[in-house]
Amino acid sequence: MTAKTLRLDQFIPYRLSFTAALLSDTIAQSYERLFGISIAEWRVIAWVAELGSVTQQQICARSRMDKVTVSRAAIALSGQGIVQRLPNAEDRRSHLLALTEEGRRLHGAIAPRALELESGIFSHFSAEEVESFVAMLRRIDAIVLGDGE
């Protein structure tokens, strides 16, 4: 029996990580240049916009960003008047993050650009390919988290 040789460029976990970092870096440069925010700050804004109000811990769980990254992004965004910290009636040890009017305006400006960037990349694939790709990513998530096959 011949042992399989590890070739990093063909190792799927590496390929996923490499491509994700490449996409993230490209998007981060665009957000920094156009809006003066980091990718972590954008992810916080996007989750707060989607959920209305959310704790930093919930953002960590949904985004897989670490606590320090989310905390720094929230502090920066709060300092810029983009998010506000509200009392959390369910857990007095944490705060809820909510967008300010400025935050809603910024989200309204960035979201179409984010969709445009996504479209610019994935327009090179058929709708079926994109749908299959997203479905596969979700299945990988479920398997790794122990929720799937």
TrEMBL record:
Keyword Secreted: no
Highest taxon, organism lineage: Bacteria
Keyword Transport on entry: no
HTH marR-type domain span: 1-142
PROSITE patterns: HTH_MARR_2
Record-given protein name: MarR family transcriptional regulator
Keywords: DNA-binding, Transcription, Transcription regulation
MF GO annotations: DNA binding; DNA-binding transcription factor activity
